[in-house]
Amino acid sequence: MKNYKYLIIGGGMTGDAAVKGIRERDEQSSIGMISSETEMPYNRPPLTKGLWKGKPLEKIWRGTDKHNVEFHLGCTVTKIDTAAKRVHDLEGEEYGYEKLLLATGGTTKRLPFGGEDIIYYRTLKDYQRLRALTETGERFLVIGSGFIGSEIAAALTMNGKQVFMVFHGNSIGENMYPPELSKYVTDHYRLKGVELVHGDEVTELEKTGNSFKVKTRGGLIFEVDGVVAGLGIQPRDELAKSAGLQVDDGIIVNDRLQTSATDIYAAGDVAIFPHITLGKNVRVEHEDNSLKMGKQAGRNMAGADEPYTHTPNFYSDLFELNYEAVGQLSSKSEMVEDWEEPLQKGVVYYLSDGRVRGVLLWNIREKIKDATALMAQAGPFKAEDLKGKIV
């Protein structure tokens, strides 16, 4: 049986950040990392952004191997024995730990048909598979208009491919943007050549040779060379649940990122944590949270005993459009728009009971700190108070 002072389940960005957090306080003790992926930790955002714009593949690696870590890649954990402080894998191997981190992330939501013919875009292997298809294929269908769907549709289009995009809603980002901005983004995609099929859903997929025939509920049929889906993720909390840890659509942690079991921590996409600025427990599926929370979990595993107080931010690139954001963005909230140039450059504030609960910085850079500071203010704010507040 392998024994480690620190054992990390999950080989993504959160796990890598935890390693670096541990090494800030403990340079020598043993660290083990178990990952179902066969690659060492890498940056995920370039999979829908930079790699399609010519960024070299070797730039995605996070250098986890430079920190004296023992890797167990392509390995699936099946059980955590909290009493014995042991972890069991699918092959019957056991791993002992003093401190354990669950950085298990999430699994992609899937359709009840199509099997492996649909690329549920999340991993490096998914990127490599789609990139290989683009070497010969010209027509691609994207299912979903969320972060993954909108970004990969733009990436494929910018690489000269014909893209069809099928999604339930009426416009791209309608659950997050103000109506006029959502319509503007949708029109922008059409101008770029993306064929949008809104208010519809894919119901059937048939493979014929190297191509696919895709049918929608509305009766449309597409013949394409590849099908990509971005339907969101489900937190991978089954291990925690079976070990008796407290879960609720994610693993519940305190402000030190500890679970309900002694010496077990959780961080990243899978963790539900007390968000100090919003004043409630949330789960955040973005890069910034993975990196900051993972690092703090690592430091705390190594004895730091520090609260996680960071307010996570996120960003996206949609052709030449881009944004940075912080907090909770819902088009059902009260929204205050402050445009420097209508729909081109400006700020959208999301309010609840007079407090700013989210900020969208549309085509604006370097203002996340200002937006975060504004969210921490008690208010109450009226629309006129927010005009010119950030830009």
Q: How large is the radius of gyration?
A: 22 Å
End-to-end Cα distance: 58 Å
Low-confidence stretches: none
* CATH topology (level 3) name of the largest domain: FAD/NAD(P)-binding domain
The percentage helix is 10-25%
Any idea how many domains? 3
What's the number of helices?
8
Structural class: alpha/beta
Overall shape: it is globular
CATH class of the largest domain: Alpha Beta
CATH architecture of the largest domain: 3-Layer(bba) Sandwich
Provide keyphrases for this structure:
FAD/NAD(P)-binding domain; Enolase-like, domain 1; globular; about 400 residues; alpha/beta; five-stranded parallel sheet
Characterize the structure shown.
Strands 1, 2, 3, 4, 5, 6 and 18 form a seven-stranded mixed β-sheet that branches. A five-stranded parallel β-sheet has the order 8-15-9-10-11, covered by helices on one side. Strands 21-22-25-24-23 form a five-stranded antiparallel β-sheet. Helix content is 21%, strand content 34%. 43% of the residues are buried. It folds into three domains: 2-107 and 233-301, FAD/NAD(P)-binding domain (3-Layer(bba) Sandwich); 110-229, FAD/NAD(P)-binding domain (3-Layer(bba) Sandwich); 320-386, Enolase-like, domain 1 (2-Layer Sandwich), CATH 3.30.390. It has helices at 13-25, 124-134, 147-158, 179-191, 238-242, 287-301, 368-375, 383-386, and strands at residues 2-9, 31-35, 69-73, 77-81, 86-89, 94-102, 106-108, 118-120, 139-143, 162-167, 195-198, 202-208, 211-216, 221-224, 226-229, 233-235, 251-252, 264-266, 271-275, 280-283, 313-318, 321-327, 334-341, 345-352, 355-362. Helix 1 (13-25) runs parallel beside helix 6 (287-301). The N and C termini lie far apart (58 Å). It has 391 residues and is an alpha/beta fold. The mean pLDDT is 97.
